[in-house]
Each structure stands twice: as structure tokens, then as C-alpha cells.
Amino acid sequence: MLNAIWIVPAIPLLGAAILMISCGLLPPRMVGAIGVGSLALSAIIASIIGINFMLAPPPGNSFTIILWRWMTIGSFSPAAGVYLDPLSLVMMLVVTVVGFLILLYSSEFMRGDEGYNRFFAYMNLFVAAMLVLVLADNLLFLYVGWEGVGLCSYLLIGFWYQEPANGLAARKAFIVTRIGDTGLMIGLFLLFTQLGTLEIQPLMLRANQSWFSGSEIATLAAALLLIGAIGKSAQIPLQIWLPDAMAGPTPVSALIHAATMVTAGVYLIARTHVLLALAPSVQMAVAAIGAATLLVAAFAALNQHDIKRILAYSTISQIGYMFLALGVGAWSAAIFHFMVHAFFKALLFLAAGAITMRLHHEHNIFRMGGLARRLPVAFWSFLIGAASLAALPLVTAGFYSKEMILSAAWAGGGGIPILWTAGVVTAFVTSLYIFRAVFIVFFGEPKTEVSGHYDLRITLPLIVLSVLALTAGFVETPGGLGSITIFSKFMASVFGEPSITTGSAETLRLMIASLLSLAGIGLAYVLYMHPSQQFVAWADSPAILRWRQFLFAGWGFDRLYNGLIVQPFLYVTRINRNDVVDHLYQGIASASRLLHQLLHRSQTGRIRWYAGWLAAGSIVTIAVAVLR
Amino acid sequence: MATVPIIQPLLLAVLLFTLGLIGVLVRRNFVFILMSIEIMLNAAGLAFIVAAARWGQADGQVMFMFILALGASEVAVGLALILRIRRRLTTLDSDAANLLRG
């Protein structure tokens, strides 16, 4: 049964091919059937394989199948191979199941769009590329998927390409992630020249044997892979592309820019965690980047008014948690949070899409309001997603995954209290900003007319994801709450045995984190449910307003890069408008033109002169020959 | 056998060749230029004959035959060209035929 795993990425690829070749000639119902059906089939097969894998684990808890040899050049013969272990299994299941739910949703959400066919073609292509990324058994094949998802991200951000701003956002996303991709590519070159293979498992083995911990070469390799991960996962300093990527359709934001693609960096680091463990300084950098990103993005989210941008900054912040977990060596906590985050963030995006499609595509939360009664399905699913994001204690999945990361941040391998503090402060800000959105959008006075209605294709994904966002956390609970470790036990063959930390100090920290997230919700209620005059006046006072604008612009990173990179580059292009290098070649050309003008004087067309030159030349030649 | 003098005939050949060259350079009429070329060819032929007689070899005479053939064909082609130029430019002035000037 496991041999059939190649079918899982092949079906979406086939779907994409059919939709692309059909050139929009198929009727929309057929397009929807192919686009969603391929993912449904893929998800079913992935689930069957997953159940098989769990019931009868293959030897070594991992399974490799070589599909074909790509090329053979000397000792370099990369294969297109699939590697299945608990890590890639979890990734595959999340990608196919969440992907299916989101595509089912979009078959209704995108109805009537003239690019309906194009949308499903790209989405299918994306899922195929993402599956290649997570299932590849060597880094070169992984890189194919890595670039494939980047391409689809570009195509789908600029999906409504008639709007110039969308094209700009698409290019920005592509160029910024390209910085990371370049780092990753150089990292692959380095790994191959140093260790002679790109197959992940032998590579990790050889790295462990031939490099010692903290050596320069291991640090360099880990740092290069980290650059790739930062670009893809929108971490500081390359996080600027993700908020603008919200220009794409909402299901795209849900699937690509929240649930799957942006977590590819987390997957890459988790997949090559042996390398990271060999480079403690880089691992420390991962934790620092994660901690900085989650704080910065959470404060930026606090000041947005576009509902999708709130969620975008929230995604950056949540991936910051995953990086924090990777940085302190809590690999399975990072993957656990990835899984839970995929559920609740996809849910939040789909709920936000369900709101905007009924409000004439109004994205500004201050023009919504009072929607709790009028859009009950969207309200309850957004509320559940928000609760899970805010890590509402005990009942939500987000609580358990965040708790696992926070406990590792204090007590894990590289954990130090300051990382835990950053995580806890962010947990407070997170519940504040997401419940700010909840109270402003769903309560208070109605401000925009509601139109249209939902059908089952919208509500079903919302309900399923709501259930997952609430219950997916029960496979892993902290020491004080039952010590269930199904997830980390399952991951043990990849990441090693879980270390359980229990004790009163641990329980106290858990209480503090829970209270802070509840306090965030409470503060949001006080401030935004019935905003008092003093608070509004304070928020609009000039000094505070300047800070709010600074945070609204995402801590001014765009301006910084504009001044630091874009403007100097434009300046250089401006002074080089006439092409400095070209002057050399123009000099050669004008010199030969000068010589030509001299010579062409001698071409008089008078035959007697020619004869004279001929005679003179002969005389000189003979004289030289005789007298020499 | 008395030795054949060589200096005087060669001086004659040089004289003829120089006359021919001056004719080519100075005359403007195509017919005279052609005739001057013939003189230069004959000067070269004379030099061959003298050399052949001096060393008792037949090669020089063979070369003279070639030069005669060359001269005949040159006149044939040259006269044909001159006729074309005369038709086209209605003159035999070589300086008027300067359409290929740079």
C-alpha cells in the first residue's frame, strides 16, 4: 500500500494539467469537479496510507521509494524519490486534508470569477508542488517543490492581475522569497561539495560523522539553509512580503499564506535538524529570530484595520513560535504547532472570506460590526479560530501546542527564560489583537448591508475546521494535564524521545501563560466592546497616533528597505542610464569609424592612382627584400 | 661561344618598363593605358628572353610564350571593358570612371 504514495502528488498534478490544457473550455461545474475532486481523491489516499503507516509501521519507521533516476553525472545521480516518515506523513495529511477543505470552499467562493478555471489549475499545481516538497527524499527534489510553491504563490497573489497593486505585491513576494531561495541553493551546493550527496538521510548521517559540533563548515551550511527558511516562512528580516500577499483571493491566503507554504521553512529546518544541532550558534539565531518575529508581528497586527492583514501578521507571529520551538530544539513541538496552526488559521481566513463575500468584499473591520446575529456560521467559526489562536485554556488546540512550545522555551535544550517571556508576552498581545477584531467585527452597530447566502460548500469546511481547531490538541497535553504524548511519541523516530517536564514550577508557568491569554481577551473586551471616551482620546493623541502609524506600517520595515536597498539601486540605475560599461565599446566603435574615414579618402575611384600606389608598394617591397 | 651581353638588354627592359609605368600613371585615355600595359608586359618578356639566352635555358622562352598569351587575353578583356565604359560614360577618360570612390 505504501508503494502507492506517488499517487498522492500525481493526482493534483494531473488535475492541474487537465485544467491548464482545457484553456477554460470546460464548464465551471466540470472545473470545480476536477479541481476539488482531485484533492478529495488525494486526501483519501493520503489518509489510507497514513492509517496503514500507523497500524503497521515499516521497518525503521520510515519508507523510501525511488520513482526514477533523474540524471547520472559521475557520482552525482539524484533520484526523484519519496521518503515517508512520521514528519512527512503529518505534513502530507495536513496539506491534502486542509487543501481539500479550502478548495471545496473556493468552488463556491470563486463562483462567477472569470478566472475560475485558472484558479483551480494553479491551486492544484500548488498542492502537487507542496506534496513534492514534503515528500522528497533528497534536497534537490525538495528544491523542485520549493520553487514550485514559490511560483504558484506568485501566480495566485497576482491572480487579479488587472489591478497593478496586485501585480506589485506578487512581484514583491517573489523577489523577497528569492533572496532566501538563493541562500538555500548555495547551501545545497555547499552540502554536496562537502558531503557528496543530497539524499537527506545519508546526508544527515555523514554530517554527524564528519563534522563536529560548532565547526565553521556546519555553521555555514546551517546558516544558508536558515536563510532559505526565513525567506519562505516570512521571518524577520524577510517578513515584508506576507502582508502584501493578501492581495490574492482569500482561499489562497488560507492555503498558501497561512496553512502550508509559509511553513515550508519550518519543515526544512525540522527535516535537517541534525545539521542545526551541529551548529549551536545558528540554532540560537533561529530562536532569536523566532522570538523577535513573534513580538514584532503581534504588535503590528494590533494596529491593522484590514481583516486579512491582521491575520497575515498573526501568521508571521505564529510561525515565529514555530521558529522559537526549533531554536530551542523542540522539533516535535514546532511540527505540532504547525499542524494546529494550519487548522485554526485556515479556519480564520475562511471565516474572514465568508464575512467579506457577504459584505461586498469589504475588508475594513471598522466598516463591519454587529455581524454575530446576522452571520452566525461565520461568527462561530471565527470565534473558535480566534479562541484557538489566543490559546484559550483547556478547550482549544492552540492552547496545547503553544503550551508545548512555551514549556520548551523555558526548560528545553536551548531554552532560556527570556525566550519564554517573549512567548508569553506575545500570547497576551495575540489574544488582545484577535479579540479586538472579534469585538469590532461581530458586535456593536451594524455598518454594512449583508447580502447573499451560503451553501454547504462554504459551511462544511468551516465546521470541519472548527472541530479540528478545537480537538486536534488533545493528542499532546502538558505534564500537569494528563501527560498525553501521542504526537511526540509518534515523532520519536524522527526527533528522538520526548522529554517530559513536570513539577510545580512548570504548572505555575502554565498558569501564568493561561491567565495572560485570558487577560488579553478581557482587555480586548474592555477596550473595544464599549470603547470609553478616554481610551479613544488617548489612542488618537498625536504621540500615540505616530506610534500606531509606525506599527500599522509593520514597524517601518518597508520604508527601511526602500531607503536602504531600493532607492540606492534606483539611484545607481539612474546614473547608469547611459550604460557606463557601454562607453568602452562605443569608444572602440568610434575609433574604427575614425580610421575608416581616413582610409576612405584613399579610395578615390581613380584607376591611375591605384596603379601608382601599386607601383610604389611594389618598389618598397622589392627594396626591402633586396636591401635587407 | 661568345658570352651574350646581359647588362645592356636588361637596361633596355628597365627603360621600357619605366616608360610603360609612366604611361599608365600619366595618360588618362583608356586605350593608351592599355597600350602602356602592353609595353610593360613586353619589357618583362624581354628580361626573360635575355636571361634564357645568358644561361642557355629554354625556360625563359616558355615564359615569354605565356606572357604573349597573357597579353593577348588582357587586350581582349580590356578592350571589351573599354567598349562598355565608352557606351556607358560616353568618354574614354579614366578619371571619369570613378563611381566606386569611397
Explained architecture:
The complex is a heterodimer of chains A (628) and B (102). Chain A is 73% helix and 2% strand. Chain A has 628 residues and is an all-alpha fold. Chain A has a two-stranded antiparallel ribbon. Chain A is globular, with a radius of gyration of 30 Å. Chain B has a domain of 60 residues: Helix Hairpins (Orthogonal Bundle). Classes of the chains: A mainly alpha (628), B mainly alpha (102). At the A-B interface, helix 27 and helix 28 of A face helix 1 of B.
CATH class of the domain at 30-89 in chain B: Mainly Alpha
The pair of chains with the biggest contact is: A-B, 13 and 14 residues
Largest sheet of chain B: none
Give the strand line-up of the largest sheet of chain A: 1-2
DSSP summary: helix tally of chain B = 3
The unreliable regions of chain B are none
User: Judging from the principal axes of the Cα atoms, what is the shape of chain A?
Assistant: globular
Mean pLDDT of chain A comes to 87
Q: Compute the separation of the termini of chain B in Å.
A: 59 Å
Oligomeric state of shown chains: heterodimer
Gyration radius of chain A, in Å: 30 Å
Separate helix tally of chain A: 28
Structural class of chain B, please? mainly alpha
Binned strand content of chain A: under 5%
Biggest sheet character of chain A: 2 strands, antiparallel
CATH architecture of the domain at 30-89 in chain B: Orthogonal Bundle
The CATH topology of the domain at 30-89 in chain B turns out to be Helix Hairpins
Give a brief description:
The complex is a heterodimer of chains A (628) and B (102). By secondary structure, chain A is mainly α.
Q: Keyphrases for this structure?
A:
heterodimer; A: 628 residues; mainly alpha; two-stranded antiparallel sheet; 28 helices; 73% helix; globular; B: 102 residues; Helix Hairpins; 75% helix; elongated
